[in-house]
Amino acid sequence: MMRAAKDIPTYVPEIQRFAISAIEQYNIEQVLINFVSNKSFVFSVLGLIIQGFTSLFIYISFLQSGVLEFVKVLKAKEQVGAARIYYLTLEVVDSGRRKIYEAKIWVQPWMNVNMTEVLEFKLAHDFCQDDLLVDNM
């Protein structure tokens, strides 16, 4: 039986690690989606990579486009049952704009099994372009 989710401190290293892990998984999925969906770009990049390192820079730039950068955990809740479920509210930077994402993370840390899975990762709030632009940190 799952208990109600309770608030927990956002500064705990384990919570920070879960947040960063969720963002990294999202970034990898986005790169794969972009990579697979743009076949003509893939073939042209592969051809250029064979020609030299300049094209490798283009390839790396392509992979890094749309990458979310972790800023901080705004809110964290923990629900305990057969496993733990963490509900995290995260502040991230996407192309220079601050955004709020929500992550739902399932963790089973006992029985010599440390399984962690991101169940959900979704945009919760996208500030208007004029609202909060991020300065170079």
Strands ordered across the widest β-sheet: 1-2-3-4-5
Q: What is the helix tally? A: 3
Total of domains: 1
Strand content: 35-45%
Low-confidence stretches: none
* CATH topology tier name: Nuclear Transport Factor 2, Chain: A
What number is the mean pLDDT?
76
Shape by Cα distribution: globular
Question: Could you characterize the architecture of this molecule?
Answer:
The protein is an alpha+beta fold and 137 residues long. The chain contains three helices and five strands, in the order βαααββββ. Strands 1-2-3-4-5 form a five-stranded antiparallel sheet. The radius of gyration is 18 Å and the shape is globular. The mean pLDDT is 76.
Key phrases:
alpha+beta, five-stranded antiparallel beta sheet, 3 helices, 137 residues
Précis, in short:
This protein is an alpha+beta fold. The chain contains three helices and five strands, in the order βαααββββ.
